[in-house]
Amino acid sequence: MKILVINSGSSSIKYQMFDMNGELVLTSGIVERIGLEVGNISHKTFINGEEKKVVKEFPIPNHKVGLSEVVNLLTDAEIGVIQNPDEVSAVGHRVVHGGEYFNETTLITPEVEAKIEEVIPLAPLHNPANLEGIKVCTEIFSSAKQVAVFDTAFHQTMPAHAYRYAIPEELYKEHHVRSYGMHGTSHKYVSAKTLEYLNLPKEGSKIITVHLGNGCSMSAVKDGKCIDTSMGFSPLAGLMMGTRSGDIDPAVIFFLEEKLNMKTDEIYNLLNKKSGMLGLTGFSDMRDVEDKINAGDAQTRMARDLYTYRIKKYIGSYIAALNGVDAIVFTAGVGENDTAVREEVIEGLDFCGIKLNKEENSLRKPGIREIQAEDSNVKVLIVPTNEELEIARQAQDLIK
Ligand SMILES: Nc1ncnc2c1ncn2[C@@H]1O[C@H](COP(=O)(O)OP(=O)(O)O)[C@@H](O)[C@H]1O
Ligand SMILES: CC(=O)OP(=O)(O)O
Ligand SMILES: [Mg+2]
Predict the structure, then answer these.
(1) At 377, which CATH number?
(2) The pLDDT of residue 366 is above 80
(3) Degrees (nearest 5) of the Cα angle 75, 77, 80?
């Protein structure tokens, strides 16, 4: 069975095709700079252990043009992995916001699409792009089942005291203003992998997952279920990120409006796209940040201290929420690759028995691994996330 996974963003589409028989990745790629003067597609195929890469640059005015070209590549006589779109049994779509409607993976119907559309105000950067991906795939892969996997679904088990805000009741009742949390597919995948790897029973387990990519979030997972998470109403809350501020006193927004005459959309843009690591240092990619720190740049050092300090504070609060912790798990681009970030986060947590094996932490090895010190009371792990595989598995389970 072949399953295509689509992670459609506002200006990009990431995709992977799996042969679920053996969970093999046949193709993976990214369409970028949609809507700009020149767009590009970077497409890789893996056939019989051999990797082939194609890069194309041309104007990609919208998602449909981008996905049509992806289909051309998928069915290409030389590098294609299918002969026609009918060979795809299901398309699994990452949908960032499902509001309170969806706590599990769902077959997409016109009613489901309408609900995803209804919650656009809760995720104005992500949901419209996700819907666009669904519309275009429904047309192109017309015989495939279209399946929605929601970033918010895993967090739907949070208790009210974790997801509610202390604002007037009607804002929740009538307008659904509450915390939802995102990156749920990743938190679910890595927390389950951790239990499996450590051979821990779900019941009684206490895991803190730390997803550090471009977007960053953390979850407290008890008995295999999410009880709290750092993103909130939208993906802007919580940790400091590549370009997002994370938690900020809402009074700053009134100040920007009143004193600097900024408009709502300008403030939105400022906090989502020009803040975080980018706003403080000029760089959103942690590799660039690392270079600046190594060159002795004090401002960049401060920015990174802010980044890791906030993660540490969330670890502290989640240990309190969980009444203990069995394992702290790092994942995603920064979490899996950045030795210094992990070291700075764990530094100074020895008061509660959390200690790192610095040498093990500094090694670059693939796969799941433990990096805590021998005398640490708590496990510290690196668990590579795989949101695409998780989406493909969930889509397969649903259509079976
Ligand atoms: N070797 C590395 N060292 C430090 N950071 C890295 C490394 N490789 C990737 N990253 C970071 O990972 C980020 C992307 O993470 P990823 O999980 O792919 O994000 P997203 O899925 O949100 O695009 C990059 O912006 C970069 O900062
Ligand atoms: C929800 C979110 O932040 O997603 P991403 O990390 O892909 O931007
Ligand atoms: Mg990601």
Answers:
(1) 3.30.420.40
(2) yes
(3) 45
Phi/psi for 166 (5° steps) reads -85, 65
Is pLDDT above 80 for 354?
A: yes
Q: How far is CA 311 from CA 14, 192, 234, 338, 344, in A?
A: 27, 21, 18, 14, 10
- Intra-chain end-to-end CA distance of the chain, in Å: 10
Q: Residues 139, 210: one domain?
A: no
Q: Which residues line ligand 1 (CB under 6 A)?
A: 213-215, 242, 285-287, 332-334, 337-338
Residue 16 shares a structural domain with residue 146 = yes
For residue 351, the one-letter residue type is F
Q: Which of these is catalytic: 19, 76, 86, 151?
A: 151
SS3 content of the chain, % helix, strand, coil (to 5): 40, 20, 35
Domain membership of residue 212 (yes or no) is yes
Summarize the confidence of residues 199-225 as an average pLDDT: 97
- Range(s) of the domain holding residue 44: 2-150
**pLDDT confidence of residue 257:** 97
Whether 182 lines ligand 2, by a CB cut-off of 6 Å, is: yes
Q: How many domains does the chain have?
A: 2
